[in-house]
């Protein structure tokens, strides 16, 4: 990993303080990026007591987003991809920023025989919210996991 930054904020309510933990990792833009960031994210979330279901979803989502960035986009100016995540009350928000590509990230149409193109559909099915931010010289794809969802029945 090129660099990691952490920040913890705690509310002032001593009974049940909401917690927000943020991490940012810059990882070299390469096919090996997805497995490396997946391990880092899982270790971090496990260490903070995030539920196993949310960790599993975050692991899949970060893998898909980083793989898409490597497959379909350019690296940032420093040759990296930026992965940022934060945790607040067992909700995990993950962002992956790359140097942009020829097209904006969007789910591919369903195909029976297509060898790829399912990544953002997987992200969409796991996240209770997700989106894409065009940042001039790149794209950030984000997803929020572990919160309320209209698509799931519990």
Question: Can you give a write-up of this model?
Answer:
The structure is a single chain. This protein is an alpha+beta fold. It is built from 3 helices and 6 strands; from the N terminus they run E-E-H-H-E-E-H-E-E. A 6-stranded antiparallel beta sheet has the order 1-2-3-4-6-5, with helices on one face. It starts with a strand and ends in a 9-residue tail after the last strand.
Give structural attributes:
disordered N terminus; alpha+beta; 154 residues
Overall mean pLDDT stands at 78
Q: Kindly report the spatial arrangement of strands forming the biggest sheet.
A: 1-2-3-4-6-5
Rg over CA atoms, rounded to whole Å, is: 16 Å
> What is the molecular shape?
globular
Tally of DSSP β-strands:
6
Q: How many helical stretches?
A: 3
- Low-pLDDT stretches: 1-18, 112-117, 150-154
